[in-house]
């Protein structure tokens, strides 16, 4: 069911793993371009048309009403409500520590003031997958950092269910997290509505949140006109385990990632050859007990692997090369090993920190860089919802002291107008 990778096959497997993420967007872009243009021109009517076409739902009222919000709170399972509230508190307590208040300083002995002013983005749109699969955790992970950052207006879009409603847990999570308005629309048409505005849905300045290939393509297309967070690829987990690790836990954690979709990648890297057979047997046993067996088997067969190395150092090197979205360290020295990891979206330490803890409850954001982009990007955070503006003040004396250096730089770059803007002030100085 799952590939066992030896020394000869490692490079080839890593190349194939990267190909998994090379989505061919050409055909998708052709469809998405038409949708975006239609929504720009025809607004609400186009949004309703595509919701009927793709989601098979006819919607009269695009926006979730106050009555629907009250109904969601009245009908949601009370234990689930308590869980959502606990998760909200954990996410809030983690992200509040990310707040950047800016700075200002005066170089010693100089009449100069320099600084950085931090302001929230005024209007943000959050995309939350919906329909058959709905993710209240995604609501919390996007809305709470935006709220902490001070975003003035948070608008959320999510596809409706077959009955034209939004799942109770989605509405409740949005309300608790501080979302201002919720709209029953998804897909490329929803992204276009947030980017350009309609009669009902306000235009925003940045769009965050995951979605399918059509959502990702639409975010790419509107990027630049509005900001976006990231283009998330198929989900992935990499586990580094030593001979002391529990094969039951390893198999369960690999399966938990594989059940996302057929393109998800679940990878074990270990120097323990005795562990390999135990994990394979556990995978075969556990898969047969789960509802999403078909998806899990395809994911593990096509994109899963157990990589056998000669040393723990080689395990670490492979992890840094793959730069996984989720990295679990199931080793006796995990608290030392994690310091050697340079590229990962999130690191989970020890046997009792499985990846779902981070997905739902711990507090750090679960919107993570995929497809090796952890080499240069980070988890969604409060900083994604702010703007930084530089502040510069020079007195006459300060400009006079530095004018020749500034003029010299400008003239070296061939920008005589820049040099003149400084030189013209010489008389007044």
Automatic annotation (TrEMBL):
**Binding annotation for Zn(2+):** 257, 260, 359, 418
Q: Could you tell me the EC number(s) of this protein?
A: 1.1.1.23
State one molecular function term (GO). Answer: histidinol dehydrogenase activity
Question: In its keyword annotation, does this UniProt entry include NAD?
Answer: yes
**Active-site residues?**
325-326
Pathway-wise, it operates in: Amino-acid biosynthesis; L-histidine biosynthesis; L-histidine from 5-phospho-alpha-D-ribose 1-diphosphate: step 9/9
Q: Which residues form a coiled coil?
A: none
Q: Which cofactor does it need?
A: Zn(2+)
Any Pfam family:
Histidinol_dh
Task: Write out the entry's keywords from A to Z.
Answer: Amino-acid biosynthesis, Histidine biosynthesis, Metal-binding, NAD, Oxidoreductase, Zinc
Residue numbers binding NAD(+): 127, 189, 212
Alphabetized InterPro entries for the sequence: Ald_DH/histidinol_DH, Histidinol_DH_CS, Histidinol_DH_monofunct, Hstdl_DH
Q: How is the cofactor bound, in the record's words?
A: Binds 1 zinc ion per subunit.
Catalysed transformations (reactions):
L-histidinol + 2 NAD(+) + H2O = L-histidine + 2 NADH + 3 H(+)
> Which sites bind substrate?
235, 257, 260, 326, 359, 413, 418
Q: What does this protein do?
A: Catalyzes the sequential NAD-dependent oxidations of L-histidinol to L-histidinaldehyde and then to L-histidine.
What is stated as this protein's family in its record? Answer: Belongs to the histidinol dehydrogenase family.
Q: What is this protein called?
A: Histidinol dehydrogenase
- Native organism is Sedimentibacter acidaminivorans
Q: Which lineage?
A: Bacteria, Bacillati, Bacillota, Tissierellia, Sedimentibacter
Q: Name the gene for this chain.
A: hisD
């Amino acid at each position: 069911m799952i590939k066992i990778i030896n020394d000869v096959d490692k490079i080839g497997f890593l190349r194939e793993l990267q190909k998994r993420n090379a989505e061919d967007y050409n055909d998708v872009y052709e469809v998405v371009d038409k949708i975006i243009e239609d929504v720009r021109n025809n607004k609400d009517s186009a949004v309703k048309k595509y919701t009927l076409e793709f989601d098979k739902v006819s919607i009269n009222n695009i926006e979730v009403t106050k009555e629907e919000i009250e109904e969601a709170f009245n009908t949601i399972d009370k234990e689930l409500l308590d869980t959502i509230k606990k998760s909200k508190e954990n996410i809030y307590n983690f992200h509040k520590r990310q707040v950047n208040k800016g700075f200002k300083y005066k170089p010693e002995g100089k009449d100069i003031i320099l600084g950085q002013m931090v302001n929230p983005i005024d209007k943000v749109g959050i995309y939350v997958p919906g329909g058959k699969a709905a993710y209240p955790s995604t609501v919390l992970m996007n809305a709470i950092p935006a709220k902490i950052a001070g975003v003035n207006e948070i608008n959320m879009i999510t596809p409706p269910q077959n009955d034209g409603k939004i799942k109770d847990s989605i509405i409740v999570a949005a309300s608790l997290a501080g979302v201002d308005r919720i709209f029953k629309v998804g897909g490329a048409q929803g992204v276009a509505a947030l980017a350009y505005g309609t009669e009902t849905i306000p235009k925003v300045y940045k769009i965050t949140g995951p979605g399918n290939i059509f959502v990702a393509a639409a975010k790419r297309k509107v990027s630049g006109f509005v900001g976006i967070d990231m283009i998330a690829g198929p989900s992935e987990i990499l586990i580094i385990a030593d001979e002391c690790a529990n094969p039951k836990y390893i198999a369960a954690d690999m399966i938990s990632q594989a059940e996302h979709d057929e393109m998800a990648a679940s990878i074990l890297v270990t120097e323990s050859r005795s562990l390999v057979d135990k994990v394979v047997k556990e995978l075969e046993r556990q898969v047969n007990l789960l509802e999403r067996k078909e998806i899990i088997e395809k994911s593990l067969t096509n994109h899963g692997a157990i990589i056998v190395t000669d040393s723990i150092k080689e395990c670490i090197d492979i992890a840094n090369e793959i730069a996984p979205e989720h990295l679990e360290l199931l080793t006796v020295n995990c608290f030392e090993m994690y310091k050697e990891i340079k590229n990962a979206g999130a690191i989970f330490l020890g046997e009792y920190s499985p990846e779902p803890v981070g997905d739902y409850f711990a507090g750090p954001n679960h919107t993570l860089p995929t497809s090796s982009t952890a080499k240069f990007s980070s988890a969604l955070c409060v900083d994604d919802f702010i703007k930084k503006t530089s502040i510069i003040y020079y007195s006459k004396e300060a400009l006079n002291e530095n004018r020749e250096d500034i003029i010299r730089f400008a003239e070296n770059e061939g920008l005589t107008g820049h040099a003149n803007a400084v030189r013209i002030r010489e008389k007044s100085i």
